[in-house]
Automatic annotation (TrEMBL):
<keyword id="KW-0057">Aromatic amino acid biosynthesis</keyword>
<keyword id="KW-0822">Tryptophan biosynthesis</keyword>
<dbReference type="InterPro" id="IPR013785">
    <property type="entry name" value="Aldolase_TIM"/>
</dbReference>
<dbReference type="GO" id="GO:0000162">
    <property type="term" value="P:L-tryptophan biosynthetic process"/>
</dbReference>
<dbReference type="InterPro" id="IPR011060">
    <property type="entry name" value="RibuloseP-bd_barrel"/>
</dbReference>
<dbReference type="GO" id="GO:0004640">
    <property type="term" value="F:phosphoribosylanthranilate isomerase activity"/>
</dbReference>
<protein>
    <recommendedName>
        <fullName>N-(5'-phosphoribosyl)anthranilate isomerase</fullName>
        <ecNumber>5.3.1.24</ecNumber>
    </recommendedName>
</protein>
<dbReference type="InterPro" id="IPR001240">
    <property type="entry name" value="PRAI_dom"/>
</dbReference>
<feature type="domain" description="N-(5'phosphoribosyl) anthranilate isomerase (PRAI)">
    <location>
        <begin position="2"/>
        <end position="193"/>
    </location>
</feature>
<comment type="similarity">
    <text>Belongs to the TrpF family.</text>
</comment>
<keyword id="KW-0413">Isomerase</keyword>
<dbReference type="Pfam" id="PF00697">
    <property type="entry name" value="PRAI"/>
</dbReference>
<comment type="pathway">
    <text>Amino-acid biosynthesis; L-tryptophan biosynthesis; L-tryptophan from chorismate: step 3/5.</text>
</comment>
<dbReference type="InterPro" id="IPR044643">
    <property type="entry name" value="TrpF_fam"/>
</dbReference>
<keyword id="KW-0028">Amino-acid biosynthesis</keyword>
Amino acid sequence: MKICGIRDARTGEAAALAGADAIGMVFAPGRRRVTPEQAREICQAIPPLVARVGVFVDTPAAEVRQIAQFCGLDLVQLHGQESPAYCRELGLRCIKAIPARDRQTLEQANLYPVAALLVDTYVKGVAGGSGIAFNWHLLENLPLQAPLILAGGLNPANIGRAVALVRPYGVDVSSGVEVNGEKDLQLIKAFIKRAREVCAYAAG
Ligand SMILES: O=C(O)c1ccccc1NCC(=O)[C@H](O)[C@H](O)COP(=O)(O)O
């Protein structure tokens, strides 16, 4: 599971030690944005087997590469209008965010040559981190060719139902583990615990 929108090294390390598989840092404009220097500090604080993910929206490829190298990112997550060709030519492991707008949008996700597809809520004018869930039934019988990461309005209370229904490869959360706009370690722990419980149940 991925905890996104981490803005300081202490919280990043604590989330990783609580069991997160990946830590996300947002480079796109908004209240969760971090500078490359802040992100580099977070990346250095995270244990070696936890993935460092940079979140970008329609950033020129050269800039993404430069930031990825400077910070030591393992993957980049793209939340804009980036094309399949952009992903192919970037030369970095990509997660493409796909808005859960309609079935056609979701089916076209298979054009992307990526490590994973992150399906997130469609909210007009909002690139990500909305805190709003979508109708998970949209994903029923969807033949995706890359591992599915479910995102959008997940929290400790609904993650069980979400995983039981969608059975994604992974899950991503940001708003659902925040209190007053700040990451809350108790909520992060509760989210990870519940996600692990339901994943073990689904697998076994
Ligand atoms: O979180 C942001 O501020 C953000 C801004 C612009 C693009 C993407 C952004 N977040 C991407 C994420 O990975 C979020 O975790 C994902 O959209 C789910 O967010 P939430 O619904 O708040 O759990």
